[in-house]
UniProtKB/TrEMBL annotation:
CDD domains: Ere-like, PRTases_typeI
Phosphoribosyltransferase domain sequence ranges: 109-163
Name of protein: Phosphoribosyltransferase domain-containing protein
Record Pfam families: Erythro_esteras (PF05139), Pribosyltran (PF00156)
One GO term of the biological process aspect: response to antibiotic
Organism, as annotated: Mycobacterium branderi
Length: 663
């Protein structure tokens, strides 16, 4: 999302660099909302600015609905389908056009203060608005502008539906859409501040020269600012005193990664976590991992269970993508954590646990609930089996198969059964906890969270077939709910000091969604939910890289491959960091770099699948780093995460591509 129209203009200016300092370029802002955007574009390009006025021809009685548009120069564009469909008479159209024509003339006179319109004949005209919905006003502007015989017409907008951008791309010489939210709700949804632009503001901007303006980027580029204030972080690990200043007394530290398969991200995150445990007293690692699989690791690091090595404890991670947790870095960290806990136990100090936040383990969690009840309450176990038998109608161990069947009526919905079982175990929780002290309370918490996973996973898998945003939000809300429950559970065990947790997850979960374009779609993230609840008691840290290799698959469920990561795209956060010339560093959002990080840029997100052929569409979205994270760690060139089970594709790797031509 954009902070306001002025910032949107600065973002567009960055995408229009090719037009900078060209004597044939003129920028026209559609009044009124497009003028603040256009002023920033014109100032950055050192081009003259004028306004182009378009008035909507509203349907009589429903003026917010456009039947057409009237543009400067008297050009009228009519939507014949609307006119016919609503049976609008020619006289009604004339009345509306005359009224809007008078307003158009008034505005042109008021805005220019007697100045003549800029002659655009033979010029390259950049038409700027604050966004497009149907595009009726912009279409009228283009049609009217053609009569002035410009050499080229360029349209630039901060936000528009992808279909509208494609349509205009075929009508003009260049089409620049800074963002294309899906689904597209409204232009205003892409802005934090979308207040109405006044006539006085338009008049002031048009009277303020845009040619010869010395912008901040000319004096010092964003990369130069970052390079000046960044702190060297060899291997992605900042000095202890820098970390201490960043973390302060925060109880929750979320550490991200821009891929799910980068060795350096995992190594740096592990080293930072060790420091948080030893120096700041953090007592839990909560990972983007399934609850039962992570709890097996938790038992191992705390000297419980039957596993004898870290590699064995990680064998629960069988579901794709297993390399996320079955890799050499996590194995070594788990072994370190077990040894560290032994030392802490000998010193009568609090041990550190390892937990999962995710909800994919629908069937595994059902099994764990029943197993727990078999040991402690056989009658309750029988009730649980009867309830969970509802899920037997779909394919075994396949949550998506259940969700598909339930969503489309091919099988029963098990929502009621999942809720009843959760309520049942919660109702008896106090009795179960009394039976065997602290260990019993831990095992009860484990079972209760498994019942919660079943309840939330059931909703998630049904929602998968109803909308991507809904299912995403359910997943991140579950993570936030689990984190909250874990914090409360650990606080019950040890009253002083309060529990502190470090979270491991992807940047797309750790970052604050409100600082990204996905917020316009209504999407939430774990980072946003944690910030809203814990405010200054949390820190969000993101990782980025410019190029290298990554462990990823080519399709869901595919084999782990060692793939080449293309150099980051122009206009991205990663490219800005690359231009600093530094190999590894940390930059804080509340440092002197705030201005550089406060600009909306592209941000790369590689999950478990990497599709370089569709790099822009598949792996980039617009972000505002200053608000997305409290700090960012950049490692210029990184290597693929080493899985415990290496596939032939991973060992061989892919043939490096000569980017971008392949020649």
């Amino acid at each position: 999302m954009f902070r306001d129209r002025r910032e949107a203009g600065r973002v567009l200016a960055g995408l229009l660099e090719a037009y900078r300092d060209r004597p044939d370029v003129v920028v026209l802002g559609l009044a009124r909302g497009g003028v603040p955007v256009a002023w920033e574009v014109a100032a950055a390009l050192h081009a003259p600015l004028d306004t182009f006025i378009v008035r909507k021809l509203g349907v009589p009685g429903h003026e917010e609905f456009a039947a057409g548009a009237l543009a400067s120069g008297g050009r009228v564009v009519i939507n014949d389908d609307v006119v016919r469909g609503l049976q609008i008479t020619p006289q009604q159209l004339r009345d509306v056009a005359e009224r809007e024509g008078r307003e158009l003339i008034r505005r042109e006179a008021a805005y220019r203060d007697g100045r003549k319109p800029i002659d655009v004949a033979g010029k390259t005209v950049i038409l700027v608005d604050d966004g497009l919905a149907t595009g009726a006003s912009m279409f009228a502007a283009v049609q009217a502008l053609r009569e002035a015989e410009p050499a080229h017409i360029v349209i630039a907008v901060p936000a528009a539906p992808e279909s509208t951008c494609r349509e205009f791309a075929g009508l003009v010489d260049d089409m620049v859409c800074a963002s294309m939210p899906t689904p597209f709700l409204a232009v205003g949804a892409s802005f934090w501040d979308f207040r109405q632009v006044s006539d006085d503001e338009v008049r002031t901007l048009l009277a303020t020269s845009t040619t010869g303006v010395a912008t901040t980027s000319v004096a010092e580029t964003a990369a130069e600012i970052i390079g000046r204030v960044a702190v060297d972080a060899p291997g992605g690990v900042p000095p202890g005193e820098v970390l201490s200043d960043l973390i302060g007394d925060a109880r929750i530290v979320l550490i991200g990664e821009s891929t799910h398969g980068t060795q350096e991200f995992y190594q740096a995150r592990a080293e930072i976590t060790k420091w948080l445990i030893d120096e700041k007293g953090f007592c839990a690692v909560a990972a983007e991992a399934d609850w039962p699989d992570a709890y097996r690791v938790n038992r191992y690091v705390r000297g419980q269970g039957t596993d004898t090595t870290a590699e064995e404890a990680l064998r629960g991670f069988e579901r794709f993508p297993s390399w996320m947790w079955r890799n050499v870095v996590v194995r070594d960290f788990v072994e370190w954590l077990r040894g560290n806990n032994r030392r802490r136990e000998a010193q009568y100090r609090r041990q550190t646990g390892f937990y999962g936040l995710d909800l994919y383990s629908l069937h595994r969690s059902m099994h764990e609930v029943v197993s727990y009840l078999d040991r402690i309450d056989p009658m309750a176990a029988a009730r649980a089996r009867a309830r969970y038998a509802c899920f037997d109608h779909s394919s075994a161990d396949d949550g998506q198969a259940y969700g598909f069947a339930a969503a489309f009526g091919a099988g029963p919905s098990c929502e009621r059964h999942a809720i009843e079982q959760l309520v049942d175990i919660q109702r008896n929780a106090l009795d179960y906890a009394r039976r065997d002290g602290l260990l019993a309370e831990d095992e009860l918490f484990y079972a209760e969270q498994n019942a919660q996973v079943v309840r939330n996973a059931e909703r998630y898998y049904r929602a998968m077939f109803g909308g991507r945003v809904t299912s995403w939000n359910l997943r991140d809300q579950h993570m936030a709910q689990t984190l909250q429950a874990l914090l409360a559970h650990l606080d019950r065990h040890y009253e002083v000091p309060p529990a502190r947790i470090v979270v491991w997850a992807h940047n797309s979960h750790v970052g604050d969604a409100r600082a990204t374009e996905v917020s316009a779609d209504g999407q939430l993230t774990l980072g946003q939910l944690v910030r809203e609840r814990y405010r200054d008691d949390c820190r969000l840290i993101g990782f980025t890289t410019y190029t290298g290799t990554v462990t990823a698959a080519s399709e869901w469920g595919g084999a782990a491959e060692r793939k080449t990561v293309r150099p980051a795209l122009p206009g991205s956060v990663e490219e800005m960091f690359h231009e600093t010339g530094k190999s590894a560093f940390m930059v804080s959002s509340d440092s002197d770099a705030t201005a550089a990080l406060d600009m909306v840029r592209l941000g790369r997100a590689i999950g478990v699948i990497y599709l370089p052929a569709t790099e822009r569409q598949s792996h980039y979205y617009h972000v505002r780093p200053a608000d997305q994270f409290d700090a960012m760690l950049h490692i210029e060139k990184t290597e693929a995460l080493e899985p415990l089970e290496m596939t032939s594709q991973w060992i061989t790797g892919e043939t490096p591509e000569t980017y971008p031509t392949g020649l």
